[in-house]
């Protein structure tokens, strides 16, 4: 459902924009180079630029649009411009907007702004973030279009009751008995990283069912625009270094980022320090909760490999695989470590909903260029080459070949995904 995209982490701060009717905080000093640098890093941790920066426009000037059946939603200008941005905010007002979703005039933000997670940002990071936006960001007079949602979602006053039911102002609580590294990872994941916005299942009010690791629903997986979002509890199929590589490089020896995670890596996690990436990995492994990875069905995998190698008596899906995919992902389905992701036992391949796999086949994918892995590797899209039936046959083979065991894909499934592609 498109509606669900209104309430996710990489969605947008909604509404007419931050009000700029308060006086600037007089406590901000002009010589705060170190604090500005810290605040810039905190902004990276919070992934602020992904929603509030549009290509070709000033940083953080807003205007990023997302189309939905409720109307077009636009991100706001969060530069220190006094008329169009947040330049009139005091630090307390800034904190209230970020942590509580309340603007200086009392207007309430929608939970597309992940303030239920940002509520856990500590005072030190909040202060640095404020100084960065007031002194380290160039003011912009850009005025993003106003968001005008349909009734009843246009009634912002109702957010008071939503907050009472689903949000919390409880600060971050360290995990008793956990190491300093694990607790650093917990803080990053639960607050600034707002990982739960996508990786925690949603309740009937489109609320995150849990906001911290004290509840087993936290990071237990969900759905985003029909893409299955995997559980992060333990990530049994990856070791800690593979988690670090995925977040820091956008790829590891088994997988490469796709969908919404591409933007997360490009704008946020790729800029994290090695220590913070290791802390996140340690926390994710600390959580546990996922069943062990099932033993690889080597007999089934070998049979698929042998048939593709012989290239005789192939099904339509097998033929399409050799013609379109085999050169990169090979007859083994293992791809090339750190270059081409493996398809055998891949999460996106075995997802209950095949939307992510179908979208990748039709639209292609591109790994982001990061400082740790600057090469840009791209997979072409096959929307113009494959019919709906062919794409369905190919997807079905991939989902059932080697050690994979997922339901078949129909031409109707492909048709529905094709309709969502941008022209």
Describe the structure.
38% of the residues lie in helices and 4% in strands. Strands 1-2 form a two-stranded antiparallel ribbon. Strands 3-4 form a two-stranded antiparallel ribbon. α7 crosses α11, α9 packs across α11 and α17 crosses α18. With 423 residues, it is mainly α. The two termini are 20 Å apart. The protein is globular.
Indicate the percent of residues in helices: 25-40%
Spans with pLDDT under 50 lasting ≥5 residues?
1-26
What about the largest sheet?
A: 2 strands, antiparallel
Number of separate strands: 6
Order of helices and strands: HHEEHHHHHHEEHHHHHHHHEEHH
Class inferred from helices and paired strands: mainly alpha
Rg (C-alpha, Å):
23 Å
**What's the end-to-end separation, in Å?**
20 Å
* Multimerization status: single chain
Instruction: Let me know the average pLDDT.
Output: 88
- Percent of residues in β-strands: under 5%
Strand order of the largest sheet: 1-2
The outline comes out as globular
Number of helices: 18
Report a brief summary of the structure.
The protein contains 18 helices and six strands. The chain is mainly alpha-helical and 423 residues long.
SSE inventory with pairings:
Blueprint lengths: L32 H13 L2 H5 L12 E4 L2 E4 L16 H10 L14 H4 L4 H14 L22 H8 L13 H11 L5 H4 L22 E3 L2 E3 L10 H10 L10 H8 L6 H14 L10 H13 L5 H9 L1 H4 L17 H4 L4 H9 L1 E2 L11 E2 L8 H13 L10 H8 L5
Antiparallel strand pairs: 1-2, 3-4, 5-6
Helix pairs in contact: 1-5, 7-11, 9-11, 13-17, 16-18, 17-18
């Amino acid at each position: 459902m498109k509606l669900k995209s209104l309430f996710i982490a990489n969605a947008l701060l909604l509404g007419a924009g931050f009000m700029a009717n308060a006086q600037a905080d007089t406590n901000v000093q002009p010589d705060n180079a170190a604090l500005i640098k810290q605040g810039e890093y905190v902004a990276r941790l919070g992934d602020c630029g992904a929603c509030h920066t549009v290509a070709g426009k000033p940083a953080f000037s807003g205007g990023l649009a997302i189309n939905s059946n409720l109307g077009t939603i636009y991100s706001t200008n969060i530069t220190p411009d006094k008329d169009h941005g947040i330049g009139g905010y005091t630090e307390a007002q800034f904190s209230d907007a970020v942590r509580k979703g309340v603007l200086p005039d009392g207007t309430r933000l929608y939970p597309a702004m992940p303030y239920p997670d940002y509520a856990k940002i500590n005072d030190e990071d909040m202060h640095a973030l404020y100084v960065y936006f007031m002194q380290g960001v160039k003011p912009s007079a850009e005025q993003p279009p106003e968001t005008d949602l349909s009734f009843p979602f246009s009634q912002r006053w109702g957010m008071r009751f939503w907050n009472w039911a689903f949000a919390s102002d409880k600060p971050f609580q360290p995990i008793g008995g956990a190491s300093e590294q694990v607790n650093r990872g917990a803080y990053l994941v639960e607050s600034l990283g707002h990982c739960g916005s996508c990786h925690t299942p949603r309740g009937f009010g489109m609320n995150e069912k849990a906001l911290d690791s004290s509840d087993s629903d936290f990071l237990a997986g969900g759905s985003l625009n029909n893409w299955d979002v995997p559980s992060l509890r333990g990530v049994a199929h990856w070791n800690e270094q593979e988690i670090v590589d995925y977040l820091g490089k956008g790829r590891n020896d088994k997988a490469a980022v796709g969908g919404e995670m591409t933007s997360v890596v490009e704008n946020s996690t790729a800029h994290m320090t090695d220590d913070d990436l290791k802390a996140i990995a340690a926390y994710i492994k600390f959580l546990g909760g996922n069943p062990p990875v099932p033993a690889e069905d080597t007999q089934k995998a070998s049979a698929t490999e042998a048939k593709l190698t012989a290239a005789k008596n192939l099904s339509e899906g097998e033929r399409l695989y050799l013609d379109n995919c085999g050169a990169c992902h090979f007859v083994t389905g293992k791809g090339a470590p750190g270059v081409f992701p493996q398809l055998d036992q891949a999460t996106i391949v075995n997802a209950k909903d095949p939307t992510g796999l179908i979208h990748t086949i039709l639209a292609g994918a591109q790994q982001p260029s990061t400082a740790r892995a600057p090469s840009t590797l791209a997979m072409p899209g096959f929307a113009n080459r494959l019919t709906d039936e062919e794409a369905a046959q190919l997807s079905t083979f991939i989902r059932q070949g080697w050690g994979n065991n997922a339901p078949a894909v129909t031409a109707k499934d492909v048709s529905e995904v094709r309709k969502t592609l941008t022209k």
